[in-house]
Amino acid sequence: MDHEQSKNLQLEQNQKERPMSLIMKVVITGFFGGAFWSLLGYFAYTFHFTELSPNMILLPWAVGDWKYGRLGNFLSIFLIGILSILVALVYYTFFKNMKSIWAGVVYGVALWALIFFVFNPLFPNLQSVAELNRDTTITTICLYILYGVFIGYSISFEAAEHERQKQLTAINE
Amino acid sequence: MTIKQKNHIPISQKLSDNEQFFKEKIGVGTSFDLGIRKLKVLNKEVHIYYCNGLCDTQFIIELLKEIIDINDSERQRAQAKQIIENRLVHQQVNPVANLDEAVDQLLSGLIVILIEGESNGFIVDVRSYPGRQPQEPDTEKVVRGARDGYVENIIVNTALTRRRIRDERLRYEIIQVGERSKTDICIAYIKDVADPGLVELVRKELKAIKIDGLTMADKTIEEFLVKQGYNPYPLVRYTERPDVAATHLLEGHVIIMVDTSPSVIITPTTFFHHVQHAEEYRQSPAIGTFVRWVRFIGIFVSIFLLPLWYLFVIEPSLLPEKLSYIGPNEKTNIPTIVQLFIADIGVEFLRMAAIHTPTPLSTAMGLIAAVLIGEIAINVGLFVPEVILYISVSAIGSFATPSYELSIANKIARLFLLLAVAFFKVPGFIIGVTIYILLLVQIRSLNTPYLWPFIPFNPSAFLQILVRRSVPGSKVRPSIVHPQNRQKQPT
Questions:
Q1: What is the pTM of this model?
Q2: Are A49 and B430 in contact (CB under 8 A)?
Q3: Contacts for B312-316 with beta carbons within 8 Å, 24 or more apart?
Q4: Is A112 an interface residue toward B (CB < 8 Å)?
Q5: A136 CA: distance to closest CA in chain B (Å)
Q6: Which residues in chain A are contacts of B438 at CB distance < 8 A?
Q7: pLDDT, tens digit, for every residue of B37-54?
Q8: Banded model confidence at residue B2, pLDDT cuts 50, 70, 90
Q9: Is A11 on the interface with B (CB under 8 A)?
């Protein structure tokens, strides 16, 4: 009986739990970070802390009126999550050795500047930064800072842990 | 200079010299709880020193009977010392060569036996400390499960833990801290699981403590260990439950037990260690997850509800159409922010008073609080009903926080956010929350990021926080403690 049970792979205790690879963690961190913070952005939009809602990224495309509604926003949150994987991979490639959380803060502010100044013409509904109201500017900057810290600190920390693990196994062998 | 010399006073062969030392150094004869019993065995003087409150008289009587019996049944006078050692019917008998060690042991409740003409004495462990029996800790009750809790005696505490982990690799290292109090501190860990770096760090920090006494036991140790400063957030987790401590040992945590305290320190700790409770693991995974989520909502509410509501009161235009009924309908005499602060501090009065009020009086106090303050403050026009509602909800939210320390820290955060909203409205709230989160992110307790596994994000560990996994399904130890052995279940 015991023997049979130990072979039964359906049982929870007999499934293997594989350690995730570093790059997989980066991808998941990117997706979760994008989705989570844009969800908070949607919440902030609902309570009028900001005039911009996540569906900002859908607006340039003519996909129909549903893009203004709840469906459009949730789809946008999902899309931002996907885009955010790219953001995470960029951080991973260039800055993963920065240990301080300030690296994340700067990364977030830089992203904000990139989107609101450089990519501004891509979004037809986005006024220039000078025309945005004060609350919107502050709320979006804060969201980007938190998002940047989330992405930056997580990836730097995981990379350092990974390095540590590698050194340990090297010592043991 | 004198300290060094004193540390090496050997036991004199003349018992009167030793007696003189005990009289001068620790006040035998002055302090009433220290005593000396003089016997004559095989024509040699034997002195027995004791500390009467800390040793068990029954044991000593047994030992004395046996020693006196020597006079009737033994002849070989030359071997008095060996004979006496043989006749000390106890498993913990140690020879001692210098008086200072003897003093230390005597004051811990052991008896010291000195023999005329010998430069070695014996120490017998007949300790029996006043203390209570293990009982369920008030702060960590569960519906089902073990009802024993740690007590003030470190030996009982190590035994309660050992009962749960019979592993030969469980280590209890003991060190003494405190120049005067000489408090025993035990570092517990499992040798092939816990991170040796962490054990070394804890050991080093504990040994570096220079203080006269540890009357507040574990709390004092914590302040030396994590160097908290004025950060209100708890950097270590306390537990009074041996099953919780044993679980953490198995996960690779290092536990610090301090004598005279019924709570033990779990290191390293993150924010999310403070929001879990043994009860979740005594229920099925689905119920445990549900309980945990409700608790998360409570904690979240206790921090953010009041500032958010107050923001909507001063700027009703923020509310979406459907929620526009929120906010007081009637005009009040006192600004809302002042009401909030008065009410919140009132709740704090109650909480503090409840800690040291005897139970019969606290019932009366609750009545006064509920009826008089709640009802009448509204009738008089002091408070709006909504203020009472939101204050109560956030107060109950903080009572739902399993860690007492965390709930108070959250309260302080809430008051700061309220102030930020009062001064700067929407920007105050947004920037306040951002700074609050950043402050939590940058805290490190014993090199562990405080908000792990949220920031820095660890997908599988975060899932473990959100969902209480079934025990057969959670197979790996949390990576944050750097366990030497990742797999929980041997294959």
A1: 0.88
A2: yes
A3: B312/A47, B314/B421, B314/B422, B314/B425, B315/B425, B315/B426
A4: no
A5: 9
A6: 101, 105, 145-146, 149
A7: 999 988 889 999 999 889
A8: very low
A9: yes
